[in-house]
Amino acid sequence: MRTADLAYSQGIDLAREIQIKHERNHFNGTRGRAK
Question: pTM of this prediction?
Fold first, then answer.
């Protein structure tokens, strides 16, 4: 059970990291097109 919780929390951290990178890339992309 503990290993399952650990994998679940790691999955959330990974998804959050990917989301942050995606939002940052999107922000840079839109800002680049605006200029």
Answer: 0.54
